[in-house]
Amino acid sequence: MDIKLTKHDEGTDDVYSIMQRVLFRDNQIDRLIITPKSYISFRSTKLMDDLEQSLKYVPTYQVVERIRKEEKLIAKEKLAVEKDKTKTAQQKAKEIKGKAETEKKILINALLDKGVSVEDIAKILGITVKKIDKILGKEG
Known about the structure:
- The chain has about 140 residues and is mostly helical.
- It has helices at about 10-25, 45-55, 60-115, 120-125, 130-140, and strands at about 30-35, 40.
- Strands 1-2 form a two-stranded antiparallel ribbon.
- Helix 3 packs across helix 5.
- The chain is rod-shaped, with a radius of gyration of 36 Å.
- The N and C termini lie far apart (about 95 Å).
């Protein structure tokens, strides 16, 4: 006499109810039905998986706790994504600023080589003479 327990057996609803309550109280321990000739494991028949996924007999407060945990995880993930986006945008801004500074250095040096005065370069670029001295000072 083999035991075959499926969702459609009579009394399965009662078994689900009892097992789901025990499942949450006992930290998801596998259950066995043992007879003199055989045994059946709830885990091996996937019944435990079904019980873990089902919310039919889970108390409302536990469902609410699960939802809150999931909401917190989602919020953390969104925050991490936003931080990554911000870091990426900051890195791009730094790269653009660095390229602009390099281009200014090249332009200033080219104009100085052509004999243009520092004051005229400042007017052309729309920056102060001190800023030009600072840019040239960085270069060497």
